[in-house]
Amino acid sequence: MYFFLQNYLKFDFNYDKDKIKLLKSNFKNKDLSLSFDSIISLSPFFSTISTIQIKDIKQSFFDKILLEKIIQKKEIIKKINGKILFNYKSKKFYFSIFDSLSMDVNLEHGNYFASKKILFSGGYINCKTESNLKEDYPRINFICNLNIDNKKSFFRKFSLTDEITNNKINLNFKGALNILNKKIY
User: Fold this and answer.
1) In the chain, N or C: fewer CB atoms in 10 Å?
2) pLDDT tens digits for 34-83?
3) SS3 labels along the chain
4) 95-127 per-position pLDDT tens digit
5) CA 11, CA 57: separation in Å to the nearest integer?
6) What is the pLDDT of residue 85?
């Protein structure tokens, strides 16, 4: 209850027979600030479609997420269906590693599918991920493509500017992330 009282939530809504529309919504607490629009369908089954614009997010938000406890709730995970589009543009361009993030997430009966595009100074990363969250030890499988079109701009972000040729870098990689053991394969 204490956590709930420290949050600010504001939204307009419309209720139809089988749909709830949340419009011009804002959520804010000390770790996270975002705005969103959502359509929640109640019939024939529960599903959501949301567009979320993240305004500010702090590292402490990620520190509080306990993935182990979330993944143990398999019966709830099976019932969550929806599509969520996340957008985030970094306000701290100099200190932040990336400039913007766009992520399209689909949840279907405990299966997770996502595609992400991360823009940073000098290039971008595209990733596709998938997972079956109902498994006892779920893994997130990923296939990613890293493109650096301007190495000088990219390395300048890390204060590395000594005689860098401006050749392009294109790197493809795939693997798996074991969520509970916190290992990458």
Assistant:
1) N
2) 999 999 988 877 889 999 999 888 877 777 776 777 777 888 888 888 99
3) CHHHHCCEEEEEEEECCCEEEEEEEEEECCCEEEEEEEEEECCCCCEEEEEEEEEEECHHHHHHCCHHHHHCCHHHHHHCCEEEEEEEECCCCCCCCCCEEEEEEEEECCEEEEEEEEEECCEEEEEEEEEECCCCCCEEEEEEEEEECCHHHHHHCCCCCCCCCCCCEEEEEEEEEECCCCEEC
4) 467 788 899 999 998 899 999 999 988 889 999
5) 20
6) 95
Cα–Cα distances in angstroms (integers) from residue 66 to residues 21, 73, 99, 140, 147, in the given order = 29, 12, 27, 16, 32
Return the bridge partners of 47, or none: 41
Residue type for position 3: F
- For residue 20, the one-letter residue type is I
92 or 113, higher pLDDT: 113
Q: How confident is the model at residue 4 (pLDDT cuts 50, 70, 90)?
A: low
